Amino acid sequence: MFTHLLVPVDGSGPAKRAALAAADLSQRFDATLTLIHVLTHSGSLAVPKELQAYSKLEHIRVTEQDLIERAGYEILRGAETLARENGAKNCEILLKTGDPVTHITNYIKKNGVDLVVMGRRGLGDLAGVFLGSVSHKVAQATDCGCLTVK
Ligand SMILES: Nc1ncnc2c1ncn2[C@@H]1O[C@H](COP(=O)(O)OP(=O)(O)OP(=O)(O)O)[C@@H](O)[C@H]1O
Ligand SMILES: [Mg+2]
Q1: pTM of the complete model beyond 0.85
Q2: C-alpha span between 63 and 61 (Å, rounded)
Q3: What are phi and psi of 126, to 5 degrees?
Q4: Which among 5, 7, 10, 20 is the best mutation to test ligand 1's pocket, defined by most ligand atoms within 8 Å of the CB?
Q5: CA-to-CA distance for 114 and 64, rounded, in angstroms?
């Protein structure tokens, strides 16, 4: 029934539970599972102040952009491990930078995603809101099936 599932992850509890649910579905339907994380800012090419002395000593240049990318990949690899441990066989990760809704909806359109599985909420702290801005806008903008997980 489903061939390609997309799980947008932001490191939050609901997004992890979305990855778990999607892993189960991908196993049942033998579907590809793509995990996407969108960095909302890319960071500068400067070495952060705290690392400057160290980078002179060791000749290692770690920029703010590198650190932000690493954090993005940690979120993705955490979700990938969880998904694989819970039955996902064909699993891939994707890191993008920019507007989350634009990247998520473009990926859905261009790659034949037939189900997007997201957290209802994410890392935001507005109490009492049923859906966050990303899950709300993706659900409205996309033509494919959409499952939101608490
Ligand atoms: N930067 C992102 N990259 C990938 N997926 C994301 C990103 N941000 C949110 N999501 C997905 O959307 C779901 C809902 O998060 P959303 O950001 O909409 O809610 P929120 O953080 O509670 O509220 P808001 O961000 O509007 O203050 C997350 O569980 C995750 O599945
Ligand atoms: Mg959010």
Answers
A1: yes
A2: 6
A3: -75, 105
A4: 10
A5: 36
Ligand 1 atom with least separation from CA of 39: 1
Atom of ligand 1 nearest to the CA of 40: 1
The structure tokens listed for 52 are 């400057």
Q: Which residues contact 140 (CB under 8 A, 6 or more apart)?
A: none
What is the phi/psi pair of residue 95, to 5°? -115, 130
- The two structure tokens encoding residue 84: 């694989």
Domains identified in the chain and CATH numbers: 4-40+79-149 (3.40.50.620)
- Show pLDDT as tens, one digit a residue, over the chain (150 residues): 899 999 999 999 999 999 999 999 999 999 999 999 999 999 999 999 888 888 787 788 899 999 999 999 999 999 999 999 999 999 999 999 999 999 999 999 999 999 999 999 999 988 888 999 999 999 999 999 999 999
Q: What is the spatial distance between Cα 118 and Cα 136, in angstroms, rounded to a whole number?
A: 10
